[in-house]
Amino acid sequence: MNRDLDTFQRSLDGPVLTPGAPGYEEEVAVYNQSVAHHPALVVGAASPGDVSAAVRYARAQGLAVAVLNTGHGPSLGATDETLLITTRRMTDIVIDAERRTARVQAGVRFGPLVEETARHGLAPLAGSSPGVGVVGYTLGGGASPTLGRLYGWASDHVTAMDVVTADGETHHVSPDSEAELFGALLGGKSNFGVVTAMEFTLFPVARLYAGALFFAGEDARAVLEAYRRFTGSAPDAMSSGLALLNFPPLPSLPPFLQGKLALTVRVSFAGPPDEGERLVAPLRDAAPVLMDTVGEMPFSEFAAISMDPTDPAAAVEHFGLLDEMAPGTVDALLGTVGPGSGSSVNLVDIRHLGGAYAHPPATGNAVGARDAAYAFFGLTVVPPGEAVADHADSGRELVEALAPWLHSGKHPGFVGPADATVDGTRPVYEPGLYARLRALKAAYDPENMLRVNHNIPPEPPR
Predict the structure, then answer these.
(1) Where in the numbering of this chain does the FAD-binding PCMH-type domain appear (predicted)?
(2) Claim: this prediction has a pTM higher than 0.90
């Protein structure tokens, strides 16, 4: 194997790293450190050819294949029976302003992409953080907190992809070329191949009326009720989310947040600022506002809306979808994670769906549960030096408390390590779609090489 490995290394543009080698730990590092990667081999792909060669080598050596860019959306860790392909060196971006499209390689993150699109007065359906990888986010559906309710899932606006399948072959897929594979990737994620490039539509949005309102924890009921009413009548151009946050006592935080429970309501309105101000007024009037960052801003400052943390950390997450946000939902939230609850959950995030999220895609894909009204997750930060397993159940009580309002399905972009089993993944897809995906998996990856993910196993031979 060493002779084969030497030959393999010389054939690539990027590095090949084995456990203990300089740079190995840095190469497998992820944003969400609750999942650790310990692969037998890491290929730092610098080109599509590297990806193809890596998949072929893994097949020859009997290794599974896993893919990693930033590690914001973990599922399973790569083991010593896995070849891990990292894509962060593949960062080409091509903007076609006339066609309003972007073509990005697999390692592109939203920060650099938005810098490029903003020069043309255009915007992608970006996530909340500039550090999130564009391709992985979009393959999981892509729920944009800035423009999602106006334009829908990012996956619905993909026009073409280049993908390396389990045999090492490269396919250019689109609604007109291998349409079944194209649609399966959008929602089926890395089950069907390694996407090396993606093309998608951009939108003529240069400015937003957006930001966040901060409230004290003791006003949680008033704010939650106001947000429930707000989302009940919000136009599609208004995307929003609410978070309950248990802040640690860090001196870097404003004094009114140190060691306190607080709420934030994040809004993003793609319309006239005066109309946005009118829509947000009931939220501002719900309770005393501790901090107000809502105002007109260039789209290029989208990261200031959510202010996501940038430092990697280990965190346990539990996800779900809601059919509605009823008065009883508010009671359940407050009883589980509200003031005086003693909950260990550090963050509960609720995102308003509906609007264009509910629209069917123009071409078929694997993103379902489109009739859900809200998505939510609970997050517990694992303190340094403590085992993730010791906190694995933190947040389950939140899901259980919200059971009466839970949607029956799951969404591919709102699943975590707790869902990374066959039984945990199956509800992401309605039964007929799941059967078709298993049949397609059998055609493109019959040995299930691409299984270090929320796995869709191949249909068994008949």
Answers:
(1) 35-205
(2) yes
